[in-house]
Amino acid sequence: MKEQILLTSLEPLEIQRMIHAGVEQALTSQFDKLTPPQKEQDEYLSRKEALQLLKISSTSLWSRMKEGALPYMRIGRKVLFSKNKLLASISGKGVK
After folding, report:
1. CA pair distance 69, 60, nearest whole angstrom
2. What would the 3-class secondary structure string for 23-86 be?
3. What is this structure's pTM?
4. Nearby residues of 43 by Cβ (< 8 Å), 6 or more positions away
5. What is the phi-psi region of residue 48: left when phi exceeds 0, alpha when psi lies from -120 to 50, beta otherwise?
C-alpha cells in the first residue's frame, strides 16, 4: 500500500523546499552513476628527482635510458620520467 502525504498543514515554501531537496538528491545520485571515476594523476620527475628516487648515479641513469630499460620522454631539451612507469620498470612489471 502506498504512503499518503497530506499537504494541507504545510506552507507553500516548505513544500517547495521538500521538492527541491528530493530533486537535488535524485539528480546527484544519477550524476554520480554517470560520472566515470577519476584516474590518479601521474607525477613526472626531472632527471635529478629520478636519480634521487632510484638512488643511482647520473651515469647509470643515462646508460639505462640508452638501453631502453627506463621509460622517459623528451619535451624540447627537458627529459621527464613518469614516476609510476619508473617504479613499475624497476619492480619488473613494466607498464605500457
Report:
1. 11
2. HHHHHHHHHHHHCCCCCCCCCEECHHHHHHHHCCCHHHHHHHHHHCCCCCEEECCEEEEEHHHH
3. 0.53
4. 82, 83, 84
5. alpha
CA neighbor of 91 nearest in space, from 51, 64, 54: 54
Which grid cell sits at 1? 500500500
| Band (5; pLDDT cuts 50, 70, 90) | low
Cα separation, 61 vs 52, whole angstroms = 11
pLDDT in tens, 9-39: 778 888 889 899 989 998 888 887 777 766 6
Q: What is the pLDDT of residue 88?
A: 87
The residue ranges of every structural domain in the chain are 44-91
Question: Distance between CA 71 and CA 68 in Å, rounded?
Answer: 7
Residue at grid coordinates 594523476: 41
